[in-house]
Amino acid sequence: MASDQPRMPPPGLVRAVELVRSGLSVAYRKLVPGQVAVMEMLAAGWLTQAIHAAAELGVADALADGPRSGAELATAVGADEDALHRLLRLLIGHGIFTRRRDGRYALTPMARALRRDADVSLRDAALFFGCAIHRENWSHLVDAVRTGKPVGPALHGMSFFEHARADRGLGTLFDNAMTSIGSLGLAPLLAAYDFAQFETLVDVAGGEGTMLAEILCRAPRSKGILFELPEVAESASSRLGELGLAGRCAVERGSFFDAVPQGGDAYILKHILHDWPEDDAGRILTSVRAAMKPDARLLIIELVVPENTRPHPGKYIDLEMLVNTGGRERSADEYREFLARFGFTLSRIVPTVSPDNILEAVPA
C-alpha cells in the first residue's frame, strides 16, 4: 500500500499557471464574437456525454494492450465502427485518445485515466456524471435556482442520499464515483500536510478507508479510527485487514449526526460538509466538537471558492451541490464564519496542487 509519495510542484507555481491559462481563455473569448464563445460553452455538455460513452463502452480498457484499428476496436467494445470513429474524432481533438499515422487508435495520458485499472481512474466518475439520473437532475437547475432547494424531493420524492440508498444501482455508481474522485487529490494532500504529527486520527465518514490507510502507511507511529455507517464499515474493516492495518486502525460504526468517536488528536472531514444543507452541516460540526479534546484539531478537506471572477472547480461543484444535495461550497471567509458559529477557530488554510485545501481549525 505504501507507495513512494510522488513529487509535487509548489502550489504557488500551479496557481500561477492556472492564472495564465485563465487569462488566455478570457483573451480568446474577447477576440471571438460573443455568440461564438457562448455556443462553444453550450457544446461542453456534449463532450461530457462523449467521455461517458467512451467509459461505458470500455474503449480505454480495450486499448490497454496496445493500439488497434477501428475495426478491431469496434469489435472489442461492441460498437458500430463508423459511429465509434465519430465519437473518437471528437475526443481526440481534446487529447483523449489519439490516432496514429497507420490509422490505429491508441491511449494518451488522459485516456489512461478512463481505464478501470489506472492508478487514479476517473472511469466511475465519467459513468456517474453522464448517467441518466444525473442528467435529469441537472435539467432542473432552473428549479433549484428559483427555490434554492435540491431537485430530488420534487422529482423522486426523496433526497439524493435517500435515493442512492433506495436505488442501489445509483448508490453504487455514486459511491464508486466518489472513490474515484477522492483518489484524484490524495497524493497532493499527503504531500502538502504532515499527518504524522498526530498520534490518533479519526476519519469521519471516510468510506472504505483509502485515505486513512495511505496516511497510516506513511505515518507508522500513528493510529487511526475510521468512522462510518454500518453498511460501509463492514467492507472497510475487510479492506483495512487486507492491508495489514487492522492492529493500527479501528473501525467504529454510527452516524455523524449523533456522535463521533472521542479521543482523537485530529478529526478529518473530507468532502463531507459541502454535501449537506447548512443546518445538517452544523449538526456534523457539533458532533465533532463534542468529541474533541481541547488541543485536538479539525482538518476539513474541501475546495475553497476564491473571491474573484475567474473560473474555478468550486464554482461548478457548488451548483452540483445546489441541484443534488442542498449543500454548498464556501469561500475562506464563509468557512471562517461558519466554523465560528459551531465553536471553532479557523487557524490556517493549507493549499495543495489539486483544487482541494486543508482547512485546519481548533476548538474556540
Q: Can you give me a brief rundown of this structure?
A:
The protein is an alpha/beta fold and 364 residues long. The chain contains 19 helices and nine strands.
How would you describe the overall organization of this protein?
This protein is an alpha/beta fold and 364 residues long. It has 19 helices and nine strands. The chain has helices at 11-31, 34-42, 44-57, 59-62, 70-77, 81-92, 109-112, 123-129, 132-138, 141-147, 152-156, 160-166, 168-184, 186-192, 210-218, 230-242, 278-291, 313-324, 332-341, and strands at 98-99, 105-106, 200-204, 223-228, 249-253, 266-270, 297-303, 344-351, 356-363. Strands 5-4-3-6-7-9-8 form a seven-stranded mixed β-sheet, with helices on both faces. The longest helix is centred in the first third of the chain and has 21 residues, at 11-31.
Summary tags:
364 residues, alpha/beta, Rossmann fold, seven-stranded mixed beta sheet, two-stranded antiparallel sheet, 9 strands
List the helices and strands and how they pair.
Layout: H1 11-31, H2 34-42, H3 44-57, H4 59-62, H5 70-77, H6 81-92, E1 98-99, E2 105-106, H7 109-112, H8 123-129, H9 132-138, H10 141-147, H11 152-156, H12 160-166, H13 168-184, H14 186-192, E3 200-204, H15 210-218, E4 223-228, H16 230-242, E5 249-253, E6 266-270, H17 278-291, E7 297-303, H18 313-324, H19 332-341, E8 344-351, E9 356-363
Parallel strand pairs: 3-4, 3-6, 4-5, 6-7
Antiparallel strand pairs: 1-2, 7-9, 8-9
CATH fold naming of the largest domain: Rossmann fold
The portion of residues forming beta strands comes to 5-15%
- What about the largest sheet? 7 strands, mixed
Low-pLDDT segments, ≥5 res: none
Strand order of the largest sheet: 5-4-3-6-7-9-8
Integer count of domains:
3
- Multimeric organization: single chain
Average pLDDT metric: 94
Q: How big is the Rg?
A: 22 Å
In which range does the helix fraction lie?
Answer: 40-55%
Looking at CATH, the homologous superfamily of the largest domain is Vaccinia Virus protein VP39
End-to-end span in angstroms? Answer: 37 Å
**What is the CATH-assigned architecture of the largest domain?**
3-Layer(aba) Sandwich
Count of helical regions: 19
Element-by-element helix/strand order = HHHHHHEEHHHHHHHHEHEHEEHEHHEE
What would CATH call the class of the largest domain? Alpha Beta
Number of strands: 9
Shape: globular
